[in-house]
What we know:
Elements: E1 9-13, H1 17-20, E2 38-42, H2 43-50, E3 73-77, E4 85-91, H3 101-118, E5 126-132, H4 141-149, E6 157-163, E7 173-178, H5 182-194, E8 198-200, H6 209-214, E9 219-224, H7 225-229, H8 249-265
The chain binds zinc ion.
The site of zinc ion has 6 residues, from α3.
Amino acid sequence: MEEGQPQALICATERNAATAGGVYPFPLFEDGDFDIPSVFMKDTEGERLATCKGESVELVSHATRIPETAYNIIARKGKGNAKKRVVITAHIDTKIGTFGAIDNGTGVAILLLLAELLKDSSSQYTIELVVFNGEDYYAAPGQIKYIDQNSDRFNDILLNINIDGAGYQEGISCFSPFDLPENILTKLREVLSDTPELVEGLPWYQGDHSLFLQQGCPAIAVSSQWFIEHMDCQEITHTPKDNLDIVNYNRVAECALGIFEFIRKL
Ligand SMILES: [Zn+2]
C-alpha cells in the first residue's frame, strides 16, 4: 500500500466480534506507525460508495498523533531463592470509547484482591502480579516491553494466569487451561470441582496469556463463560455497554478466591 502511495484509505468493515468486540463499524487500521491516512465506515455504506466508482469525492479527516508514555506495574512476592515464578496478569488499558468494566477493570480488581489474599501466605514459588498496559492498544507496547525484559527468563515461569473478561453478570466464570503439565492440571481440576461457580473453559487466544504460550509457558485464562461462548457474536466489549451495570461482583470475588486456592495447592 505504501508503494502505491494512495492519498487515503476508505475502509468498509462488517461486524466481527472476534476481531473488534462489539464495535461496528470498526477502524481497520489502528497503527500509529502507518503513514497513510485512513477512515472507516459500515460495510453497507461502503457498498453504496462503491457504486460511485469513477466519480470524484472529497474526504476530510482530522487526525493527530499524540505521543504518550505509559507503564506496566509489576509486584513480586517470594523468597528470592525460588527457582520458578507464577505470573498472574491483567491488562489495565481499554479501548477508546468504552468504560472497560469487564475488559478489563474486573481483571485488575481480581489482581488487587489477590494481592490482599496473598499477603500473609507463603509459597515455594515467587508470585509475580503484572498489570499490563497495552493489550487493547496498537502494537501492544507494554507486552512487548515485558517480553524484552524477560527474554532470557521465560523458562523460569512455572505458568501464567491471565484474567480478562471476568465477572460478567450472565453465567459463571471459566478457567481455560493451556499446555498445563498433568500434575498442575489435576490441581486446577480439584479447585474447580470444589467450586461450582468456576468451570473449565474452552481455549481462546485473544488475550495476554498468548504471549506466554508463544514463549513456551503453560497458562490459564480466567474469563466469563458467557463471553467465551459468545466470542464471535457479542456486541459488548470495546463499546459503552461494557460498564459497571454488567458486572456481577460475586463472580469477581469467586475468581480471586479460586485463583488463590489454586496457588495454595501449587
Ligand atoms: Zn481484554
